[in-house]
Amino acid sequence: MVGKIFAGFRTSWKGLSLTLRHLFAAGESRKVVGIKSANYFDQKNGIATIQYPHQKLPVPEVGRYQLDVEMDDCIVCDLCAKICPVDCIEIESIKATEAIGQTSDGTTKRLYAAKFDIDMAKCMYCGLCTVVCPTECIVMTDQYDKTVTNMNDLIYQFSDMTAEEAHEKREALEKQQAERQAAKAAALKKGQA
Amino acid sequence: MNFYLTYLLVATLLFAFTAIFALVALYAERKVSAFIQDRLGPMETGKFGLLQPFADILKMLHKEFIIPSAADKVLFTLAPIIIYVAVYMGFATLPWAPGVVPVSLNLGVFYIFAILSVETVGILMAGWGSNNKYALLGSMRSVAQIVSYEIPAGVSVIAAVMISQSLDLQEVSAEQGILAAHPIKFLGIWTVNHTGGILAWNIFQAPHLIVAFVIYFIASLAECNRAPFDIPEAESELVAGFHVEYSGIRFAFFFLAEYSMMFLVSMIAALLFLGGWNTPLPNIGPARLADWTTGTAWGICWIVMKAIILVGTQIWIRWTLPRLRVDQLMNLCWKILTPVAFACMLISGIWRLAVM
């Protein structure tokens, strides 16, 4: 029994001295260094807390955080929305009456994006959309801190068209289609006659 | 009339002291636990989070009293008050300095142990009144634990009291320094009435009291329901134990009682074993350190320092040692602490007869 008592004190003291060492090491803090730093694993003593909004860990520029879309390069092919495993991308396209322009890699744009919404609350950061994008206009950025007070603020709207513009384009398309239909019908009638 | 005014003033001072101590200890506990775990603890409320305990207490005050519909309303409401009052009344006989004591009872130690036992009733009331299985389990464990640990605590206290030959804590303190009326001997050989200091403390007058002190300290941890003996509120098993149903100011009272209890048991330990309000500095030749550092202000200073060091140790132990299982707890109490405490008491008797 005496041996047990001494073992109890010895082991307790071992634990207590360990915590005491940590208590007295609390005077210094570990420096906030990124994972790329050569001595990242060398800091073993001191406070490990990073006081987040005041201090930030450096992240790589090509981090896999929030999505961003360069609308000028988007051809509204809808591939990203189709591949998305959680369906967080919602695209509504309007056919243009003629070629609108070209993206920076030379692809011709033929569709307007009336709506290009990404729901960041649903996004699981898999990055599949960035892989399938033919013009590489949807990318992941190094931005990760997007705290909002309203859930709807997490739906990012990338479309640069106003509702009026979209309406106008839609009417133009309808008009063009109606004209084509009329032309087709006229051609058909001619053929029959 | 003045008589009653003095009483009221003393009572208010003691209450203010326990309340302020609870706030400071709450902050200290958070910071110490954080530093031990390589964290920073509260940092945002005021400089270094210094206002955190005030923010906590404000939050508690703002909260609604919720009495569960199935609870026993009378017991539920009274329990936190009884628990706190039991601890608070324990402060009545504790001396703070030579001549400074709220009430000098010649049954001081006995009174404290009697009044602290009432806390157990309060805990059982809280658990039973909540009508919640976790609360009831917690309070049953608490009662079993406190009742068991009062035996080694009581017996080791008796060992000290046998050396001091008084139950009055003021006299017990006086007998451990240069103000002693009776001859006192360091380790039973060297008369230190004029030397005083650390040499005259009870644990050095009779060295087996070091063992008694350790037993008392371990038992007092259990009586405060502090880790590693915190099975009554074992968070991982019982949510929060006996106070799981409490909110707001009543919950704050449990906190207040816990921290006051920590200070109380530490102060009793300091009074009985560590020289009470006596200075640790002995007279060395012409340097009359003990004479210079004995007095009312010094006395308050020393006793508070000693108690705070012990409270710090309690906090340090809480954040180091894991919780004991119920059977381990009872094993420790009945098979180790109680027999050793009885042995200490026996040695005290022999010491009294043969050495002193």
TrEMBL record, chain A:
One of its GO terms (cellular component) is membrane. Transmembrane segments: none annotated. It comes from the Bacteria. GO terms for biological process: aerobic respiration. Residues 63-94, 114-143 form the 4Fe-4S ferredoxin-type domain. Keywords: 4Fe-4S, Iron, Iron-sulfur, Metal-binding, Repeat. InterPro entries: 4Fe4S_Fe-S-bd, 4Fe4S_Fe_S_CS, NADH_quinone_OxRdtase_chainI. GO terms for molecular function: 4 iron, 4 sulfur cluster binding; metal ion binding; NADH dehydrogenase activity. Pfam families: Fer4_7 (PF12838). PROSITE patterns: 4FE4S_FER_1, 4FE4S_FER_2. This is 4Fe-4S dicluster domain-containing protein.
From TrEMBL, chain B:
Its main location: membrane. It is found in: Cell membrane; Membrane. The keyword Magnesium does not apply. One of its GO terms (molecular function) is oxidoreductase activity, acting on NAD(P)H, quinone or similar compound as acceptor. InterPro entries: NADH_UbQ_OxRdtase_su1/FPO, NADH_UbQ_OxRdtase_su1_CS. Keywords: Cell membrane, Membrane, NAD, Oxidoreductase, Quinone, Translocase, Transmembrane, Transmembrane helix, Ubiquinone. It catalyses: a quinone + NADH + 5 H(+)(in) = a quinol + NAD(+) + 4 H(+)(out). It is an enzyme of class 7 (translocase). Its EC number is 7.1.1.-. The chain crosses the membrane at residues 6-28, 74-97, 109-130, 142-163, 198-219, 251-277, 297-317, 329-351. One of its GO terms (biological process) is aerobic respiration. It is a multi-pass membrane protein. GO terms for cellular component: plasma membrane. Belongs to the complex I subunit 1 family. NDH-1 shuttles electrons from NADH, via FMN and iron-sulfur (Fe-S) centers, to quinones in the respiratory chain. The immediate electron acceptor for the enzyme in this species is believed to be ubiquinone. Couples the redox reaction to proton translocation (for every two electrons transferred, four hydrogen ions are translocated across the cytoplasmic membrane), and thus conserves the redox energy in a proton gradient. This subunit may bind ubiquinone. NDH-1 is composed of 14 different subunits. Subunits NuoA, H, J, K, L, M, N constitute the membrane sector of the complex. This is NADH-quinone oxidoreductase subunit H.
